[in-house]
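Narrative of activities, Objective 1.

The group set out to show that a structural description can be obtained from nothing but a protein's sequence at a throughput compatible with the screening campaign. Below is one input-output pair from the validation batch, recorded exactly as produced.
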Amino acid sequence: MKITDKPKSMSVLHWLSKKMALNNIGGTEDVITKVINHQFSSTYEAMRTNDSVEISGFCKFYFNTKRYEKQIINLSQKKEELEIKYKKAVSDKYKNEINEKLEDTIKQLNHLLERKNGKSKGNI
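Output recorded for this entry:
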């Protein structure tokens, strides 16, 4: 089974599920898709609190610290820009839109800052 066998119109997830189901690896295509989705959603959740996560026999994911430091800078700048826009906004509708974006930006920024300070780190 080579990735080059995959049709361009088919997603990797769908292709893997179909191949595994055809080879009687462990269930129907739907069940295999759910297992794969669960595995990657669990990996995503684990990466929120850990610097690396390994899926045995598949790969190891690493958290890119340089990237998140750049994100902290970018989110800080975005927060300042949104605060200025909010102060200059005339209509209530526009203020509400800006406020929603600002709250989301602050939430993302706080999460990254907590992670940087080690408050949300854990081990698997």
